[in-house]
Write a structure and sequence with these properties.
Aspartate Aminotransferase, domain 1, alpha/beta, globular, 14% strand, 12 strands, binds pyridoxal-5'-phosphate, seven-stranded mixed beta sheet, Aspartate Aminotransferase, domain 2, five-stranded mixed beta sheet, 39% helix
Length: 404
């Protein structure tokens, strides 16, 4: 599908606002929402050519839709990839990737710190189909190297991780994958292309949950894979057409418009998060702060290099409390004392969200697994939004200053 005619050499910020299919005959300035499941063909011969994929053109909504195509072209332009393909959710995108790339007998290496559902998809669901996954340390490249097998097809990472914001070296993982004849896929949900473009560091595929920063206002579910045309068009296109994890045009439209403000939202939310993290470090009830923008973060230098000098907008911290029960009671007290923040498990919203990972996102792990992952009962995650920073801090003080 041809995009709108734009001159070459435009800045990424311009592409984020302008990349789309050409407007319809009505000349709408804001991209149209094509809410239709099917497309009328001029004649049977044209329909036949389009269904046989020898001619470009829209046929049926499970395969493609102009609003979805505009979203895909815009996201690809922002990530710097040849192409992108939408999915119903972020997990739908990862499922599409696995269905397209893997078969029984193949091996995957995945960071131990990725999104919980991603771990279940690789470990449990694809395990049933004979795909074996080895989970390794997010930051110790030697473990990734040691896990390589002749059957390794895919390395999968997410950086920074949730909730502890560990950062992996994308270039080093890409080099390792390519030496072994495997692909590297990076889940770029936490940074978005506004901060981090994994393709420029050697990654082969970039995964998105559009539900998070791309939409940016917590409205719709969406996902995408960005990568080379030969994989997007020839491998993943047929998977979506057959398996149906299609992105809805309405959701694509919401996220398409969200992309226009992604850059300025990320800058503002990162600035809020950095100020918040520095402020937390000074509070006597806070024992540790996890944020890549802080000097105290173990991979601070790497994060600054990979993430355009920004730490992202997710900040986690431990509240004081000796034993696990006290730590949990203190964390709950801080969370329940807020009057402005949302107690929810989402992130990437303009509304600041506060979460207790040990009993929500990581609640199904055993206490031992949680300890190994470093997720204590006193840990609180804050996905910083766009409220005025002093109001966010004051909301936390209600609990931090009144701990027993
Ligand atoms: C939320 C999330 C996903 C899954 O996205 P959904 O749109 O909820 O399916 C995948 N990876 C990361 C890092 C996420 O935060």
């Amino acid at each position: 599908m041809d995009g709108k005619k734009l001159p070459a050499g435009l800045h990424r910020d311009t592409l984020a606002v302008r990349t789309a299919l050409a407007p319809s005959q009505h000349g709408e300035n804001s991209e149209a929402l094509y809410l239709t499941s099917g497309f009328v063909q001029t004649d049977a011969e044209t329909a036949a050519r389009r269904f046989a994929s020898v001619e470009e053109g829209f046929t049926y909504g499970r395969t493609s839709n102009p609003t979805v195509t505009s979203f895909e072209q815009r996201l690809a332009a922002m990530e710097g990839t040849q192409a992108a393909i939408g999915a119903s959710t972020g997990m739908g995108a990862i499922l599409m990737m696995c269905m397209g790339l893997l078969k029984a007998g193949d091996h995957v290496i995945c960071s131990r710190s990725v999104f919980g559902s991603t771990m279940n998809l690789f470990g449990r669901e694809f395990g049933k189909f004979g795909v074996e996954t080895t989970f390794v340390s997010q930051t110790d490249i030697a473990q990734w190297r040691a896990a390589l097998r002749p059957t390794t097809k895919l390395l999968f990472a997410e950086t920074p991780t949730n909730p502890l914001t560990d950062v992996c070296d994308i270039q080093a993982l890409a080099d390792l994958a390519h030496e072994a004849g495997a692909l590297l896929a990076v889940d770029n949900c936490f940074c978005s292309p506004a901060l981090q473009r994994p393709i420029e560091m050697g990654a082969d595929l970039v995964i998105h949950s559009g539900t998070k920063y791309l939409d940016g206002q917590g409205r719709v579910m969406a996902g995408a894979i960005c990568g080379p045309s030969k994989l997007i068009v020839d491998v993943f296109g047929p998977v979506v057409r057959t398996a149906g994890m299609t992105l809805s045009p309405f959701n694509a439209w919401v996220v398409l418009k969200g992309l226009e403000t992604l850059g300025i939202r990320m800058q503002a939310q990162c600035a809020n998060a950095l100020a918040f993290a520095h402020w937390l470090e000074q509070h006597p009830a806070v024992t540790r702060v996890y944020y890549p923008g802080l000097q105290s973060h173990p991979q601070h230098q790497l994060a600054m290099r990979q993430q355009a000098g920004q730490g992202g907008a997710v900040v986690s911290f431990d509240v004081r409390g000796g034993d696990p029960a006290t730590a949990r009671a203190n964390a709950f007290h801080v969370i329940d004392s807020t009057q402005v923040l949302s107690i929810a498990t989402n992130l990437g919203d303009t509304k600041t969200i506060i979460t207790h990972p040990a009993t929500t996102s990581h609640g199904r792990l055993t206490e031992e697994q949680r300890q190994a992952a470093g997720i204590g009962q006193g840990l609180i995650r804050v996905a910083v939004g766009l409220e005025y920073i002093t109001d966010i801090q004051d909301d936390l003080l209600r609990g931090l200053d009144t701990l027993p």
